[in-house]
Every structure is written in C-alpha cells, then in structure tokens.
Amino acid sequence: MSVSQGGLPPGKKRKESKDSMDATIEDNSQVGNDNTIDYDLQSGVMQVELPTLSPKKADRPLLTYKQTDKGPYHVYIENNEPNFSGKLNPVKVGETILKNIPEVDNMIKRIESIGRNRVRIVFKNPSAANVLLNKTILFKTINLDVYIPKFILYRQGVISVDKDLSDEYLLERIKPFDSHCIFSVDSVKRMHRKSDQNGDIKYLPINKVVVTFQAQELPKRVAINHVLFDVNHYIQKVILCHNCMRYGHLGKQCRSKPRCAKCHEEHVTSSCHNDSLEQKCLICDGSHYSFETSKCNEFERQKAIKKHMAMTNSSFRDSNNEVPKTTYASVTKNNPITPQEINSSDLPSQSSNTQTSINIPNANSHFTQRLSKPMKRNSPSSPDLTEEARRQIVSQVNTPQVPGGITNNPSYCVHEFNTRDETFIQHVSELVIFVLTNFRETNINSLNKSTITNLIRERLNIDK
C-alpha cells in the first residue's frame, strides 16, 4: 500500500530535519538561576563531541518504552526510500496501522503529520506503543521506518566535576541519588575551552561534563561515590549556516544555494566586496548583517526554542510552535523611537468625533500608541417637524441670571396677571368655595355660595 502523495516542485530540495539534538559545543557556559546551562554562540570557547540523540537511520537502535516511563508515548513513522520526494499521508498511515494491528485501535490518541516525510502516533500507554514497535519488519516491506526518537527517552545534563576524573571513570561511578529519578548513564563527555596563543589553537579541558541519561526526566542531582552533584539542563547551542544564512545546520550540512549576507545574491559572503549597500538581515529584516547574531531578534528566538526543547524534552518543531515570533516590542527595543523623532505632522489631528492618545516613550518604557476608534454618528434620515418648536423651547431663558431672584427678571415681569379676567376670578372663587366647604363640614359656620362670592368681590373691589 502506498502511503505517500504529491511531490516537490522542480529544483526544490529536501529540508534538513530539526528534531535531532546537536552534538557539538563550541560556546561558553553560563549557569542560570533555573538550573540551566546556556551556551552562547558569540563567545566560542568550548569544544566537545557529544553523541547525537537522533542518529542516522542505519545506526538507529530499536528503542521501546518501559512500564515505568511517564510518557509521552510517541512513535514516529517515516518513509525510508532514498529518493522519496512525496509527502507521507497520515490518513494512509492510520489505515495501514488499523488494518494490520487492529488491537491498538482504542489505544491511539491521535495521528498527526509533523513534516513532509514524518508522521507521529501518540499512544495512551507504553504497551500499545510497543505493540507497534514490534511490527517494524512488517512496515519495512512497504518502505516505512517505525521508531522512537532518542530525545524522548534520553536527557542531557551538565555537572561540575574535577578535571582529573576521566569520562570512563564517571560513566561507571555516576549513580542515582535517591528514588526521585531512576536512570542509567549512556555517555559522559568532558567539555573543553578554546585557547588561541599566537595562532596556536588548543582545546583545554574544564571542570564540566555533559552526561546523557537514559530517562524521561532529568535528575536534579546525582551521586559519585556518595558525593552529591547538582545537574543542570544542557541547552543546545544555536548554529548558523554561513552558506545559506539560515539557522539550524552548518555549512557542511547545507543543501541549499549560497546566499550573500551583504547583497543577498547567490554567492558566499566571503567573496562579496559590495560594502556600500544598506545592511539588512536575511532572517529578521533588521538593520544588520545576518551573521551579526548579537543584533538579530531571530537569534534570541532560536535560543528560546533551544531552551524550551531542553526544559520540556520536546522536538524542535513543537518548541518552534510554542515560542512566538518576533514581536513589536522586541523590534522597538532594538530600534527605539525617541520624542525628538516625533514631529507634530506625524501626530493625528483631533476632531469632535475622534479621540487620540499617544504615549511618548521614556528611557524605561517601550513605545506604545493607542488610537481609539472614531465614534460613528448616524445621519438624519428626514427633517423633524417638531425640531423648530424644540429649539424655541430650549432657547428660552429658564433660569434667572440677574440679582434679586425671579421677581426682578424682565422675562418674569411680562407675565402680569389681569385681575379682571373672569376665568381667573372663577378659579379663585372655586378654590375658596372648596376651602370654606370643608370648614362648613366641620360645623364652624354655615356659609352659602352667594355669601362667599360677595365676600370675595368685596375683598377684591370687583363690581358686580
């Protein structure tokens, strides 16, 4: 059954796998506060050959999971044809597994593609993963390799020991300190620092060794003849190819065409004499050459990826997805904007329906800019017939603005009452009658309507 599909465009070369752990240290070690040792590419003072944790296919050992392994339980499948240029189809791989090994159907969490020629099967327990690993001969008949990547079952750490202790001696003497982590030691390699005296380059041993443990968890400390030693995470160095100016491999492993870091043409940088062009990084588009890693934002991101790989025991692909790309803050950190660089013409003009606020950066803060969304006002659909009346009411004087209160307000004086207004007299009479009626109901005096009316007329001096 064929499990591949598609192909690469003409001239497209196969990419190098980045799931492997690098085997060479050429950098200085710096012990961090989080039990990690980072190797900086800039210093270049260490050299040691380490066993690769992702060997070639011909040398790949058959690894299986133990019942004590905590997981994850991953099994990788990839095509082993030398000239394979298609894409490994995960659906077809799943069909092949279920057809030939149906007993693992309910033990598979998921099957996912993690590259052009690689598929990962995630199992629920180690027993189910081992069932698939024991069928390697069956898969070889259809040109498929089934294996566990070595980085899943092995961890690398750094311990500080005396230089007079040999690698062979330490390999036999390093033992677990307690039951918090059970392991076996696979290899021990001494680190060296580079010494250049008058052109005479030598590599001198230092008091640090890299230990490869067969365990899914890095031990916090180990015992050598019952003497305790702390174990720090070994973080791979970031390597840059000076042929194609990409991270992840060296020039001798590069299969791409050369790229010049100066003019960006297809030739090696050492043969270019064009120094008049503007400096621009091929990787992060920064204002520097690609080989100036101390100025490159992507170099810092690659270091973060390597640290994530060491701390979580994950592949480059998974760590690359976890570490975010270059952010705006990192760009402004290397290219800060000062208040002197901001002109008034660069600032947006304020209007009645737009709110704008700009934070000018200072020496201790990054530049941020916030522009609020303009308020949208609905245009009137048709004239309002009551609008003119509303304006007249609103425009009238409602509150006295002169001393003396409302009685001295000219607007108030206009409204003088006419005492001869019959309507006014009627209202007042009815009010008085109502009041006196209440008095009558209380047996104060017996008053009729005509009497009360005459009394009111006499009081107001109104003729009949």
Task: Categorize the overall geometry.
Answer: elongated
**Strands across the major sheet, in which order?**
3-4-17-11-14-13
SS element count, helices: 12
Give the mean pLDDT.
73
Mind telling me the C-alpha Rg?
43 Å
- Largest sheet, strands/sense/barrel: 6 strands, mixed
Helix content: 10-25%
Stretches with pLDDT under 50, minimum 5 residues: 5-52, 351-372
How many discrete domains? 4
Category by helix and strand content: alpha+beta
N-C termini distance:
124 Å
| Oligomeric state, counting identical vs distinct chains | single chain
- Portion in beta strands: 15-25%
Q: How many E-type strands?
A: 19
What key attributes describe this structure?
six-stranded mixed sheet; 24% helix; 12 helices; single chain
Question: How does this structure look, described?
Answer:
The protein is an alpha+beta fold and 464 residues long. It folds into four domains: 24-52 and 153-234, no CATH class; 55-148, Alpha-Beta Plaits (2-Layer Sandwich), CATH 3.30.70; 251-332, no CATH class; 422-460, no CATH class. It has twelve helices and 19 strands. Strand 8 (108-113) and strand 9 form a beta hairpin. It starts with a strand and ends with a helix.
